[in-house]
Fold these 3 entries.
Entry 1:
Amino acid sequence: MLDWILYGIGNVFEWHIILAMIFGVAAGIVIGALPGLSATMGVALMLPLTFGMPPTAGMLLLIGIYCGGIYAGSVSAILLKTPGTAASAATVEDGFALAQQGKAHTALNLSIYASVAGGLISGFALLFFAPQIAKVALGFGPPEYFMLALFGLTIISSVSGNSISKGLIMGCLGVLVSTVGLDPITGGERFIFNTTFLLSGIDLVPALIGLFAISEVFNQIAKGSKSIASGATLKKEKFSIKDFLSLKKVIAKSSIIGVIVGAIPGTGGTISAFISYNEAKRSSKKPEEFGKGSYEGIVASESSNNGTTGATLIPMMTLGIPGDVVTAVLLGGLMIQGLTPGPQLFTENADIVYTIMVGFILVNIIMLILAKMAIPWFAKITSIPSNVLMPIVLVLCLIGSYAVNNSLSSVGIAIFFGVIGYFLPKYGYSVTPMLIAIILGPLAEKSLRQSLILSDGSFMIFFQRPISILFLVFCLLSVFVPLLAKYKERRKQNI
């Protein structure tokens, strides 16, 4: 292995590979920062460019778009309360709160440092532990997926604001929304109201754009703000390595969660980001700051969703199973280059594989350099007058929604959720629990029903497998530890 790693290090610094990575990262940052244009779309659009390229250069160009796109989703999440990608949805509240306080530079620096740290940790996991992690991922069946989804749904109690009951109501509403379309087991129609565009269900991207982006446009118009950072001075604060190292525990833990979740096929950065955000809040000494501009909240989300980028390549390369939607497109790119994913890839094409894995690490370093150069320009967005910025954002949101399916129905869905995201928070109903339920609802329903089919209707299947039991313990801890902490705090106040 060491010989091949050294070969990959020597090979990855060829000029055409470096140029491919730089172009890929730059394109990914632009695509990821635009609402609705996901990393998946970016990789798919650029895939034809790789047809005539050498395998290593072609794959690293696509990986650059992937990593750059996942990171750049945080840029619009922080500056505009508009997640560029679904994986940055957990960054919205804290990132935008800092931008409104005039600390856009700080939030953007936190995001890029955490993203690169998560990417590097996942890159080294890909390089040194891919086969071992893939074996663990193979242990996941329907019961494990259900318990993972259930664990994710316990996050609702942490992001419900001042009222857990209202958060649960929004969570139930999100689960209801996730059931629209065709039944995943029987194929029956559910809640489509004699329409055809709802047969495929409610797409996550239009719902996400509506709940956060379009609703924020309505808010800015209603408030009549002159700019996003209205009343605050844009501060170009120094962010030192010492400041970054003070968050090292959160970053390390969140990156590892990202690697674990990312290696499980069918999950991805959105789920890992919310799980890490919840864990960071649970273990924080200042949980009350989450949602109001917490540094820990931003780095937990961003290190975790970028921690999945390398991990999703693990099942793709070792087993031929894509870790998420983006790696499904990357899998196609790999096969177009004449490479067959699986164990034989590491024996028959070790030179190419190790160059790609070493290149993944270099991609994250290039991303750091390009993003740091762009941060001063990104931060200036908050000072643009709202009467200029908001119409541009609204147009981008509508275009992004349309681009999902090339359908006006997706635009209608985005506007519908925009109205929900505008009115319900005024009555204390946070939209984040609804988003989490929309994301996790399909996984929870499908895996629950598959599990019960396997067990002939017995719920004991969830208590007979080690990984399933482990996630059940995590669920209980996630629910009862915060309640116990609140109980102790009340007792102290009474004393």
Note: The chain has a mean pLDDT of 85.
Entry 2:
Amino acid sequence: MTGHMFDHAKEAFSFIESLDDLETPQDVIDVMDKSFALFGFENFIITGLPNPKERFEHVVLLKKWPDGWFETYSKNDYVRADPIIRLCRNTVNPFSWSEASYDRVGEPKAADVMDRATDFRMVKGFCLPIHGINGYEACLSMSGVDLDISSHTKPALHLMSMCAFERIRKLLSPSAFRGTNQLTLREREALVWAAAGKSAADTGAILGITERTVTAHIVSACQKLGPTNKTQAVARAIHI
């Protein structure tokens, strides 16, 4: 592992550890701003994905957007044409903005969204879709000009983003986290090794248990926490 790669991992876990001490949404914004800037990100937003009857500005949980962009985005109802939002609804995997395709000729408003965003230094981006088991849809989207997005940094950004979302949701809706079943030590260990990229077989060898047992621990943890994937389970496990 190179020093550069190690720094990304170190920053990710330092960021995650700091979240527990944050008491307000503004605290989360400040910490996100500092940590995500190391990857080149200048702006970010955590928002629900509005249904046809909802206004975009009513489902935003947290944002650090350039002055004027939020008003422009809301006024033009860009959320209905934004290719980033569209891809969020159709995938559970994190993606770079460049992966959100659209037809510049056939979808002029989609093109307008992306073109206008560049006026606010929102040239490139990374987005984490969030799909809850009860149908809730949200995302964390980050942007900037010169970004460090690679196969080495994406796992760190994924985990940091999910943990940030979980922390802000807990701050805004603490009652939703009451009565959560506690994880066992083995369940937490299995999730942490999964977040580090280890397979069930690798984790079994590390912990001295069978691959089947590791899988059972992960499944059990996911059933307790209700996440849609292992990374989200790790995010929740860290905060319990």
Note: Confidence is low (pLDDT under 50) at residues 1-6.
Entry 3:
Amino acid sequence: MTRLPPAATRLAGWFGVGDPWERPRPAVGRADVLTAAVVELIGLVGLELVRSIGNETLQDLPFPWWLQWLAVSSGAALLVGRRRWPVAVAALAAGHMILVGVTMPVVMGQFTLQVVYFVALMSGVAWARDRRWMLVVVGFIVVVMFAWIALQFAVGSALQGLVDDYAGTPRHGVLAPVPAAVLLTVLVNVLYFGGAVVIGGLQWRSARDRALLARQAATISAQTEALRTRAVAEERLRIARELHDVVAHHVSVIGIQAAAARRVMDRDPAATRRALEGIEGSSRAAVSSMRGLLGTLRSSDAPQDGTGPRPRSPQPGLEDLPVLVEACSTPGRRVGYDLVESSPGAAGRCSPPLAHSIHRTVQEALTNVEKHSTATRVSVVVRLEEGRFAELEVVDDGRPRAGSSGSGLGQLGIRERAALHRGSVEIGPRAGGGYRVRVRYPWPDDVAADAAPAAPTAVGGRR
């Protein structure tokens, strides 16, 4: 395959050869017909005004007036399809120019027909969809036009007419009158045809750039809408996870405390009172947590002038774990809690989102123990290695309770929370009996703020 020279390659690229974009081709509309009619009217009026002035060249034409009118009208009619069939109209305009120029040069030289030819050639470059074919046709038109001009000077009467007009005229400038007239004619035609081609190319590039900008704007709008939808879905998922944790945990605690109160209400009033107090506390905590979630839903619509609802209370964190563990302790089950810090005060320096995730993960693990295990001892350990990781481990000594198959949403919530912090998850039965939930989170300083959440690793069964 022959490679084009660099200059030809750049020229073809400027005209859009090889560009995948195709300019939409509009149908012939009322504006096109109206434009052609106005140009035709101006052309005919101008032609008759020239005739009325007494132009001898026009009067000496061997063609009747109606044929002259036909030449003007047919040229103006080409403008009707200049956008629908741009390359064909450009070729027809070039043929019209040569035919009328040879037979009726004074008619071809009228201002309106010159505008028609210019606009037709410009539209051929600006509206053509097949850029390679356009370049071939327009190049052929330009070559033919300049060959015709050259023939007019070489073998036609154009040069002789200049000699007759300027015979005996003294030389006033750098060149003699005849060479100067020839060069001026060539320069005018270069500007005429070159201007039509360049302006058409600029119009095509401008239309392409506008189309690309519109496409990019549509893409950005679609991506923005997708991101908004994704954000709404993620927020709904977070709220659903919070509701599951809150409702499942507190309802399980209430059920256990109610069962314990029922068993001892006749023989141990004090234990019954403590169980009922636990039920009361769990119900209040559930209502408070649900109000906080409702506040989250309403916070985006709250006015900024301070007249809206008050900010919701802080989400539970590490400091609330002792209360959570104590609420899960029953006469038949002991739940222990240990906080191991690499340095004093590390729990206070743990970021609130991570502390909240640790609290909710422990809550979900204890809820699973209450609903699905026969455990009598449960150990909750939180280890904080400041600058390295935060780890929680919930271990029990029980076996799966018969007839208590779970939905798996609890473990799914644990894994999703771990994924938000790029944590790893280990869930499953222990070799020596019992069940373990272990989650390790990187310390927040070690996680890039813009890193995408990674799926956590998880092993073990379903509870």
Note: The domain at 319-463 is CATH 3.30.565.10 (Heat Shock Protein 90).
